[in-house]
Every structure is written in structure tokens, then in C-alpha cells.
């Protein structure tokens, strides 16, 4: 992991201002390493203390598996499908910074858009119990577009600050 202090500062500025962040860039340029650096430094650099939790979607096989992993890392009772019981359990503990890697895999079979609505509901607002940093090779607007019939917008529309990185090695 090369020096990326300016990049980390920029991301933590967005998080400290209450934003969620999406990291977008080509494969194999260091998005996972950047997420791990955020995980390591979160306790020192966040103004609102949040427990950093990293989930790599390479190891998640569908929505049920995601909820199981999330509950495991949060150390709360199994929360299949999210919902009010999960929200209540999350609000009863320290706020969370959820770092999701390879998020484009949420487009695979086994995932629904309800999971995005669930995450959005938990991550909206400055004092939300959950803040998100999602990494992907394509923008979330491309991965999870609006419904084309005009009835429904994407569950994550207007929730993230986009940080597009083409070549991390040029950023110091």
C-alpha cells in the first residue's frame, strides 16, 4: 500500500461530513487495499466513533449469506432479511462503518434490490447507525440503475459521494 494520505484524508472528510462513499476504479488498482487502510485508520480519523467492518463479496454467496456475515461481524443475533429487529439491534450498539468490497457481485443471482433499500435506510443522515464505503469497478449508478419504467428510482440514488480513481499509484 503506497502513500495515499491525501486520498484517505479526502475519504474521511466525506465520512465525517455525514456522506457515504463509493470508490470506483478499474480492477487490480488497489481498491481493496484502500478499504483495508480505511478499516485500520477509522478509529483514529472518524469524528463519530464507528466500528469498521470489512466484507468482501468474493466470499458472500447471496443475500442470506450477506446477512449472516453482517450479523457475525456485528456480534448480534442472526438477522436474515434485515428489518426492524436488525435496525433495533444496530441502534443499540456502537455505530458502524461498513466497508463493502466487490459490490458489483450484488447484481448476481441471490440478491434483490431490497438489500440496497435496507442499507440505504440504515445509512441515511449524519447520525445514521451505519455509514457505507462501497468499492466496485463500475459506478453504483451503472450497477444499480433506476427502473426504466419511471416508477422507481434506484434504492441508492443520491446516497453516495463518488470517488473515481483510475490509477492509485499517481495519487500521493
Characterization of the model:
The protein is an alpha/beta fold. Helix content is 36%, strand content 17%. The protein has helices at 5-16, 31-45, 63-74, 83-91, 114-123, 140-143, and strands at residues 20-24, 51-56, 96-101, 130-136, 160-164. It has a five-stranded parallel beta sheet with strand order 2-3-4-1-5, sandwiched between helices. The radius of gyration is 15 Å and the shape is globular. Residues 167-172 have low confidence and may be disordered.
Shape assignment = globular
Mean pLDDT: 79
Query: How much helicity do the residues have?
Result: 25-40%
- Strand percentage lies at 15-25%
How many beta-strand elements?
5
Low-confidence stretches: 167-172
Largest sheet: 5 strands, parallel
Structural class determined from secondary elements = alpha/beta
How many angstroms separate the termini? 11 Å
Give the strand line-up of the largest sheet: 2-3-4-1-5
SSE string, helices as H and strands as E? HEHEHHEHEHE
The radius of gyration computed from the alpha-carbon positions, rounded to a whole number of angstroms, is 15 Å
Q: What's the total helix number? A: 6
Short structural description:
By secondary structure, the chain is α/β, with parallel strands linked by helices.
How is this fold's topology laid out?
Blueprint: H1 5-16, E1 20-24, H2 31-45, E2 51-56, H3 63-74, H4 83-91, E3 96-101, H5 114-123, E4 130-136, H6 140-143, E5 160-164
Parallel strand pairs: 1-4, 1-5, 2-3, 3-4
Record keyword descriptors for this entry:
17% strand, globular, disordered C terminus, five-stranded parallel beta sheet, 172 residues, 6 helices, alpha/beta
